[in-house]
Amino acid sequence: MPAVAISVFHCGEVIAEVIHGVADLDSGRPIDRADWWDLASLTKTLVTLPEVLYLVAAGRIRLGDSLSAVWSAVGGFPIEAATIAQLLSYDAGMLDSVANASIEV
Prior knowledge:
Elements: E1 3-10, E2 13-24, E3 29-30, H1 42-57, H2 67-70, H3 84-88, H4 96-99
Antiparallel strand pairs: 1-2, 2-3
């Protein structure tokens, strides 16, 4: 899908948004706001990492904190002892069956 979507936020409000490109190469259908985007591993690098590092800089969490220390909903699951640093570096030892487990928030 050769397409791009950019949103600019200010104080929680979208102040600019551009969506451009093709959703389906065979039909030429243009991309739409409702289309799903496969971000693969980019989500962790571009979104999660900066947000987590902001929380670390603000003193709200530490990279050595366990996941269960910052998210009580994972208590009792095998992943609860993994540290924030391990999760960010793909070194938490999380199995597919654990990754797909249902956790209510």
